[in-house]
């Protein structure tokens, strides 16, 4: 069984492909939520997946993470076939994911939440011993808190954070351990313009070896933090290209933004 690299020991070397999907399909009865998805994401690549509601974006994420097993096709993570693997095995191989709805311990502090995330993917996760002040995971948690710009709120209860700060905290949790690919599911949803700017700065500041795929309805955010874009429509891939190509594509404008977009 493969163990996660202990927190703090993040490799800076990336090569090959992080994710390869070949003909991935997910059926719910007679309904194809996604159909024949073929997609390659390089190690360290930052990709946006865009599309209107019902396009199949979140179902795609659920298949990649193991929340859903695909009806057909194969999923390879860093060269390994994980199509039938449970979610925790994919996590051990460096996959992380955030959700549309915040999943946090509201009664604990920011520091406690991040420490628990680091502890949860470490070899000592089942120990009942209280951590010492010299615990390396406490230091790692502080590094992640700083990476998402929450150091001034380290000892504040999560329930007292703004919604935008809670979304920032979720990114810190996703960075625990040794992530190599992170799936962000609409991280800008519900954020104010100032909070969106903070989110962009955080995503742009992530270490270069950590790739990510972001689902986002806010095209201004998505196109600023991605180097490649996949457009989905009715459960299939509609177009792929650079942010500039997608932004200037007439068919994309008509489908995604409406005929009145100039």
UniProtKB/TrEMBL annotation:
It holds the Pfam family BCA_ABC_TP_C. GO terms for biological process: D-alanine transmembrane transport; L-alanine transport; L-isoleucine import across plasma membrane; L-valine import across plasma membrane. GO terms for molecular function: ATP binding; ATP hydrolysis activity; L-isoleucine transmembrane transporter activity; L-phenylalanine transmembrane transporter activity; L-valine transmembrane transporter activity. The lineage of its organism: Bacteria, Pseudomonadati, Pseudomonadota, Alphaproteobacteria, Rhodobacterales. Residues 19-259 form the ABC transporter domain. GO terms for cellular component: plasma membrane. The keyword ATP-binding applies. Keywords: ATP-binding, Nucleotide-binding, Transport. InterPro entries: AAA+_ATPase, ABC_AA/LPS_Transport, ABC_transporter-like_ATP-bd, BCA_ABC_TP_C, P-loop_NTPase. The keyword Transport applies. It comes from the Bacteria. This is ABC transporter ATP-binding protein. Coiled coil: none annotated.
